[in-house]
Design brief:
By secondary structure, the chain is an alpha/beta fold. The protein contains 15 helices and 16 strands. It has 3 domains: about 150 residues, 4-hydroxy-3-methylbut-2-enyl diphosphate reductase, catalytic domain (Cobalt-precorrin-4 Transmethylase, domain 1), CATH 3.40.1010; about 90 residues, Rossmann fold (3-Layer(aba) Sandwich); about 130 residues, Cobalt-precorrin-4 Transmethylase, domain 1, CATH 3.40.1010. It has a 5-stranded parallel β-sheet with strand order 1-7-6-4-5, covered by helices on one side. A 5-stranded mixed β-sheet has the order 2-3-16-12-13, with helices on both faces. Helix 8 runs parallel beside helix 11. The longest helix is centred in the middle third of the chain and has 19 residues. The N and C termini lie far apart (about 55 Å).
Amino acid sequence: MKANGDNYFRRGLGLKAKVKPLLAEAYGSEIVKAIKAAGYRLTVDRFTFRMARSLGFCYGVDRAVEYAYETCAKFHDRRIFLVGEIIHNPHVNQQLRERGVQFLFPDEDGEFDFGSVQADDVVIIPAFGVKLEDLATLRQIGCVLVDTTCGSVLHVWKRVESYARDGFTAVIHGKHFHEETRATSSQVLQYPEGRFIIVRDMDEADIVCAFIRGEVEASVIQERFANRVSEGFDPHRDLARIGVANQTTMLASESLAIAARLGEAIADRYGSEALPDRFRSFDTICSATQDRQDAVKDLMKDPPDLMIVVGGFNSSNTNHLAALCARSTPTYHIESAQGIDPKTGVISYKRAATQEVVVTGDWLPEGPVEVGLTAGASTPDSLIGETAENILRAAGVDPAVVSAAPAEPRA
């Protein structure tokens, strides 16, 4: 894509200095700074907060939010639309609404209606990116476009595009209904013979592997993946040469395992000597996603008494963090600090790996307790800090007593 022009902005709008104090006020947190300054471990009264060393806003999200604020500043006299959500965080999206940004949401099939957008309007493309056909429609309208698509997502797009160009079907590990995966799969359609199939998890990857090995019929693929393949998908033709990619926010270890399993299936069917001509796999795992997952795994080597994971319930990377934590300690995934009532201590959280939202007052142990904290890549420090403050308030502790002195390691 071309660089900044009169109608297309991808490298910011030159107002970073102007919006920086606004972002710091909206998304910064003194208590988070204190915990980090104390070596990511801070004792306040009976609570010891242990924070993952990589959490919260990643570079791509930080950039997307910054560009959205710059857009509001530069084009304050125009209508500003956002395609979907800037990121999967209700708090951040609500703050953009309060700045006058109008949200365009897709129908149940993921299709957007841009009929209300006019040439004089401004449209923000979210960090997830948009489908090629949606971008083409917006360009045809002639509106100003502010493209905040994450660089890690663009990296995946280049990979799947190269697969399509060279005659390989893109096998994408992701959620077929997720904005990023929809945008990624559209990239292969730049080529007449471009093909894709989307697998949600290892179980679905194993079905594809079973077909490649000749263990199941093509009808199994066609039925199971009916709404997750390119039009005219022929398993016999299109699973003979494959390239693996992933939605950047998926569980990194699972993406790597799926790629390895698919490679083994190709080798079993065609022989290992055929791999260079029939199988490709490049690391398209987002470094920020990997860093946050690694930080949680490191924290779980000595698990705290419980873990609080802050982030949108529809945030893929946040859900994966919660699932990792739940393997080792009681885990509570909340969307924001409002998930914990500062007066009663009642918590409203989503169970890891499910869609069940639970409300309970029986979750915080008596006496000294270690509370682990992490957050998805779309969660600002402000929500992490407010979460810690609400835990303290619920126990009758004034957050103002927070000290930057590091806690003693637990025996």
